[in-house]
Amino acid sequence: MNTQSKQENEQHFLTCERDWVYFTLIAVAGFWGAYTFLLRGGVFCNAQTSNVVLMGLALGSGEWSKGLYYLVPISAYVLGSVVSELAPNPIKHRFAIRWDTILMLIEMVAMLCLGFVPESAPAQICQVVINFLASMQYNTFRQAEGIPVATTFTTNHIRQIGVGLAKEFHHRHSPDKSHRKKLATHAGMLLFFATGVIVGTIFCHLLVGRAIWVTIIPLGVVFIKLLHADLTTEKSMVEQKPSGH
């Protein structure tokens, strides 16, 4: 009975909602973080809080041109959200393939192109591209098997680990351990992000700018699995929205 219930629960989620997809994507984001920090201007492009802070610091210091520059990456992030909101319906209706799948292809092509950008080129080229991609990914992949997560940064995962540990304390004498699934998911996301950063650092030292090509491999695995689901096992479910949308 328990096995049957587990199977039914697993079938409830689309392939694009599976834990392994989210673990893979956040590892790639960790790699991006290492890449942009070490090789493309010493910044993190996966989120925009730092850009807003730096813009405020520059404007507050009277450095107007420097401050207004930060509107470029911030605007790229906004544009990524706009595109990822508008694109899903037209794509699935025209091609019978989910936006999530197309996004993986877009990211793979972008990573291939970025690998050809020389280290002497303006760092802003790679920064804006990754800002745009990170925004689309963050807005597209929202829940891992029903649990709200982020695939591009770890702040909320760290907070949720603390919440989960508090619940573990509160429920230490209770048979209710339902919180552990959520705790394990957030811990896994943090672990995979850190792993991506470590692997990214190693390859950045070995391959320099072309290190970004390494991320095409995990993105390719996700793309193939999502495409296979779109064309076969989940072909009749193309209208079903992933959790959180």
UniProtKB/TrEMBL annotation:
The keyword GTP-binding does not apply. The keyword Transmembrane applies. Keywords: Membrane, Transmembrane, Transmembrane helix. The chain crosses the membrane at residues 20-38, 99-117, 183-204. Pfam families: DUF1275. This is YoaK family protein.
